Amino acid sequence: SFNLLWNWGYYPEITYHDRSWSSEYDIDWMTDIFMTRLSGQAFYNRQDIIDYLKSISVNGKVKEQTTSKVAWLYWQV
């Protein structure tokens, strides 16, 4: 994208922004999320996932921490 804009006479700029957030989920909800994320990669038993989530849960809630870097590409027309 950057190269195309540059070749078309634009002067694109890129900025980077760090993002971080956390979410808490019930074990049943998180089990469904894990089953979806892990589908097709290997055989996972639903009960094994539930047991694992129970082992890391606090008061029946599983905390998910997400950290990302977002790049914004912008230019003036």
Describe the protein's architecture and organization:
There is one protein chain. This protein is of the alpha+beta class and about 80 residues long. It has one domain. The protein contains three helices and two strands. It has helices at about 1-5, 25-40, 45-55, and strands at about 15-25, 60-75. It has a two-stranded antiparallel ribbon. α2 (about 25-40) crosses α3 (about 45-55). It starts with a helix and ends with a strand.
Task: Detail the topology: elements first, then pairings.
Blueprint: H1 2-7, E1 13-26, H2 27-38, H3 46-56, E2 61-74
Antiparallel strand pairs: 1-2
Helix pairs in contact: 2-3
Shape: elongated
Major β-sheet annotation: 2 strands, antiparallel
Relative helix content: 25-40%
How many helices? The count is 3
Mean pLDDT: 93
What is the number of strand segments?
Answer: 2
Rg over CA atoms, rounded to whole Å, is 20 Å
Stretches where pLDDT is under 50 for at least 5 consecutive residues are none
β-strand amount: 35-45%
**Order of adjacent strands in the largest pleated sheet:** 1-2
Q: What structural class do helix, strand and pairing data support?
A: alpha+beta
Order of SSEs: HEHHE
